[in-house]
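Hi X.,

You mentioned you wanted examples for the new student's onboarding notes, showing what a folding record looks like when two proteins sit in one file. Here is a clean example. The first protein comes first, with its sequence line followed by its structure tokens.
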Amino acid sequence: MIGLGQVQEFCAVAATIKDSRALADLMAEITGAMGFRYFALDHHIDLKPAVSSVHVVDYPPDWVERFQARRLYASDPIHRASHRTNVGFAWSAVQSLITLSAADRSILAEAHDAGLGDGFTVPAHIPGEVNGSCSFAMGAGDVLDQRQLPLVQLIGSFAFEAARRLSRQTLAPCEGPSLTERQAECVALVARGKTDWEISQILGIGQETVIQHVKDARDRYGVTKRTLLAIRALFDGQISFADVFGR
């Protein structure tokens, strides 16, 4: 079982780590100290791996091979459950977050047969990026120590951010589309299902001006459909669900 001092030390080292190999070594050390046997830092996308995606995994090789071959990144029940919460959860409680299908139960049984016991997953949700997570797993038959899970939550969050920082170092600086304040207001109202005329009345501007703002926003995103524009703006954090439903 770890203490707060070990968490603080881990976070300080993780913030300055220089490469994925060093991060993997650091993760292996803290994973063992917490009583876990395996760890996985990854984005929930099919990869082999891509340099722009987080993928630092120390699961049983046989399970990793099967997982990749079957492209389970998006459909894996633990990954799907992590999309339903912002805090970590024990795998034994996954059925409280999602309804498990027969296929889900089969995947979990296969993972157990491959050597993975109970585990704890910390979700990572960042606007404009694919969902990810940091997971720690016991060996099959080992007992998860529930007392230290709040500290495991902290380790997982800082670990994923360290991996995310490293994955972005190899990329050229690139910012996504940015909307002006007025464009964002128009797009938020588009997301509410308002017409251009209704938006003009709400904002007190001309209908032609609204049309131009929406067109400029579509051009920035390279999309032609208003619905897709709203989805992209929500995903990137240019507008929020509060903008759409809160007023």
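Then the second protein repeats the pattern, sequence line and then tokens:
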Amino acid sequence: MKSHTIAVLVIDENRIRASIIEAGLHEAGYGNVTIVHDINGIARKISEINPDVIVIDLENPNRDMLENMFQLSRAVKRPIAMFVDRSDEASIEAAVDAGVSAYIVDGLKQERVRPILKMAISRFNAFARLNRELEETRGELENRKVIDRAKGLLMKSRGISEEEAYALMRKTAMNQNRKIIDIAQSLVTAIGLLDPGENA
């Protein structure tokens, strides 16, 4: 994605600091920049603006403000770069847990905005890719469990081998133009309804 097409939202109650970030973004070629100075109702504003990247600048954040911003980070699922003037280890860990892509302590300088934003975007994309792969792997494992369960049920009810049970499900799936997992799930559900003891 080219920088001039990326919509950036800057959340900063301090207008002077916001202008530093805005200048750094414009200098880096980010033309679509929206500044919000009031954090009240920020979740609604984010959904209205629908930015690609969010930059949050908290001059002297208290714990409640940080926690609110971390909850926001978990909810919006976008790259977030957060600038704070000071921090502690617990806040840094909380920022990572919340999915903040770049958490910068005492580093608000115009020339640093561009590399920090690029890092936030690439880190967010890397985490998103890992999460997708993890979900796919989890889904495959769950599917395998269901298919194995269905094979076991067929083997028991029909007195056939594992290979024959799988071949039967595959043939049924092809005949019905469905996936094997759908056939397996239907079989497990049906047996569970007919014989509740089987699902115990």
